[in-house]
Write a structure and sequence with these properties.
Shape: elongated
Number of domains: 2
Strand order of the largest sheet: 1-2-3
Helix content: 55-70%
Distance between the termini: 37 Å
CATH topology of the largest domain: Rossmann fold
Strand content: 5-15%
Structural class: mainly alpha
Radius of gyration: 22 Å
Length: 328
């Protein structure tokens, strides 16, 4: 029987997770648990690269993120779930890799260049922010991950990891596999105001939102901007609420909304309520699992400890090979 390929992925704990996080990554993680040997980690050190001035909330965000993960169906029986800072070997390998990584590789990183321009309210001119791809590489190759699930915009991150692994192997002998990027489809899901769904835009529907909150938030959603009155025909093709219907309502209702909106047979208020009901049903099992884990904090703590022990064992074995290769 062939061994399952090993994959690794992680998320920064910057607050509660929302529908964009679910469709962008988590739903795929849940699916691939049965296909791969999965290591998923909460990247709390990475959170410091941009939020180093206000680290006080990270511990609470870590707890909340783990509960979000468990609530959507990530299983500690199928996957190794752990916290980055609990595995100090990540920092050791990061140090070694930083010695061999050329600065121009980091300066050409598209995310680095974009965020240096776009994020104006924080000083990102730090070594940690420039060098975060090196820490990211350490996170991945310390587990000898053969693949990393990413969206197309994140492929350059995996390529830097491949280059760093290749350079280490060239200098010191083959220790690391060069991880491949597994391209994952990420459905386009916009926030309540048609911008990208984001906590910072205050336009997100969170995985932990209750039914009342969902109805309140979706009532504020922007619909067809050209439909001023209920008696005006609408265009579902440019309506964010209809995009949500296609994800959370049954096919019969989607067809009905598509037809009725175009002939002004249904108003936006009623349309939003029907969509909110479907979205609430979609999130109901997530809410139920959330209550289960929130009522069992010791179970959640034990999951982190068990996952950390497995991750630490694997990372420790790799670091023995790294030190031998470096003759340290």
């Amino acid at each position: 029987m062939s061994r399952k390929k090993r994959i690794l992925s992680g998320m920064r704990p910057t607050g509660a997770l929302h529908l964009g996080n679910f469709h962008g990554a988590l739903s795929n993680w849940v699916k691939i648990q049965d296909e791969y040997e999965c290591f998923f980690f909460i990247a709390d050190w990475h959170a410091l690269t941009s939020d180093y001035e206000n680290p006080g909330n990270i511990t609470e965000y870590v707890k909340g993120m783990l509960i979000d993960w468990l609530s959507v169906g990530l299983s500690p029986e199928k996957s190794t779930l752990f916290v980055q800072s609990h595995i100090k070997e990540h920092a050791e390998l990061f140090l070694f890799l930083s010695m061999i990584t050329p600065v121009p590789w980091l300066e050409r990183n598209p995310t680095y260049k974009e965020q240096m321009i776009q994020i104006e309210n924080r000083d990102l001119s730090t070594f940690g922010f420039l060098g975060y791809p090196v820490l990211q590489a350490a996170d991945i190759i310390i587990y000898k991950a053969e693949a990393v699930p990413v969206g197309v915009d994140q492929v350059p991150h995996v390529e830097i990891t491949r280059e760093i692994a290749r350079r280490f192997n060239h200098l010191y002998g083959k220790v690391f596999p060069e991880p491949e990027a597994i391209l994952t489809e990420t459905p386009k899901i916009l926030g309540l105001d048609r911008r990208k769904m984001s906590k910072s835009y205050n336009n997100a529907i969170f995985l932990g939102d209750d039914e009342k909150t969902i109805f309140t938030k979706t009532a504020q959603m922007i619909t067809d901007p050209d439909r001023a009155r209920k008696s005006d025909p609408g265009n579902p093709d440019i309506c964010n609420v209809f995009d949500f219907h296609k994800m959370y309502s049954d096919s019969g209702l989607v067809r009905e909304i598509n037809e009725q909106c175009r002939i002004a047979g249904i108003g936006c208020v009623e349309c939003k309520k029907k969509m909110a009901a479907g979205l609430s049903r979609f999130l109901e099992p997530v809410r139920e699992r959330r209550v289960y884990y929130e009522e069992r904090p010791q179970l959640v703590a034990d999951i982190v400890v068990t996952g950390g022990e497995k991750a630490r064992k694997t990372a420790g074995q790799t670091m023995e090979e790294v030190r031998a290769a470096l003759k340290i």
